[in-house]
Amino acid sequence: MPLLALLIALLPAAALGQADYPSRPVRLVVPFPPGGATDVVARLLAGKLSDGLQQQIVVENRPGAGATLGTEQVARSAPDGYTLLMTAFPSITTAPLVNPNVRYDAIEDFTHLVLLGTFPNGLVVRADSEFRSLADLIAHAKANPGKVTYGSAGPASSGHVTGLLLAREAGIEIVHVPYKGAAPAFLDLLAGEITADFDGMINASRQAQAGKVRLIAVTSERRLGTHPALPTLAETVPGVFGESWFGVAGPAKLPAAISQRLETGIARAMAQPEVRMRLGETGMTLSGLRGAGVVQFIRDDIRKWSAIAARMRDPK
């Protein structure tokens, strides 16, 4: 037997699989319904990553249980690089803090590859709403305790916890209405079922430009360069801000060679001018964090929201 053939024969099958990765389509699981901010970013990324890896990236929406259903599915998948996850604030940062039924560890059960970026939510009301500012909304809430409702993408989402922080710091009583994703919440806002909605700026800015909603505040710490006239929550209620984020991960123990291939491919996809322009227009701040840097970011985010999470577990 020739030497090269002998060496190949002695290699483990797993090593050979890593060498030609990816040799078949890769699933990118989005633990939210179609149409929301996470889904928009996932589909934009999938198209560019498919080109770079020369293999199809199939976006699969697996919503349910506050975004933990699809997240757990990936955590339990084989670490072969063919099942990836769009990680996001609610399923990784807050859900494990507040939901005792979550059956994965946000750090130990994943190989965190890349932090795509951070982005704020926009606080929106219907275009024909009487509320033209956050101050108007707060004044109405003080005069009508428990009558103001706000929607979010679901329990423990960034919109949910930011609303809790706003209520606490403004001294108002507002009612959270959770949805199974950002898109259903937005539709109920348009239908007049809720007073306001915390929606990702990706969708909020687009719908405001279309004249469907009025943006009254942004949840970032500072005003956005893309929306300089839009005030922050903190300008009306100091100390209130909260940003969400997106990333990509695989199951724990993903082989280093596959991790590196994916990290590099994702980084190149996100560096393309078209991607940077489209995401920059939404207020998203792109990130260059990879691997261990992503893990540290998540640890810090969990610490930041632990106090609010404790209040969610025990409102008394």
Distance between the termini: 75 Å
CATH architecture level-2 label of the largest domain: 3-Layer(aba) Sandwich
The biggest beta sheet is recorded as: 10 strands, mixed
Poorly predicted spans: 3-9
CATH class of the largest domain: Alpha Beta
- SSE succession: HHEHEHEHEHEHEHEHEHEHHEH
Number of helices: 13
Task: Indicate the structural class.
Answer: alpha/beta
Helicity, as a percent range: 40-55%
Describe the protein:
The chain folds into two domains: 25-119 and 243-313, D-Maltodextrin-Binding Protein, domain 2 (3-Layer(aba) Sandwich); 120-236, Periplasmic binding protein-like II (D-Maltodextrin-Binding Protein, domain 2, 3-Layer(aba) Sandwich). The chain is built from 13 helices and ten strands. It has helices spanning 3-10, 13-19, 37-53, 68-75, 89-98, 134-143, 158-170, 182-190, 201-209, 233-236, 256-270, 273-280, 292-313, and strands at residues 26-30, 57-61, 83-88, 110-126, 148-152, 174-178, 196-200, 213-218, 243-251, 285-286. Strands 1, 2, 3, 4, 5, 6, 7, 8, 9 and 10 form a ten-stranded mixed β-sheet that branches. α3 (37-53) packs across α11 (256-270) and α5 crosses α13.
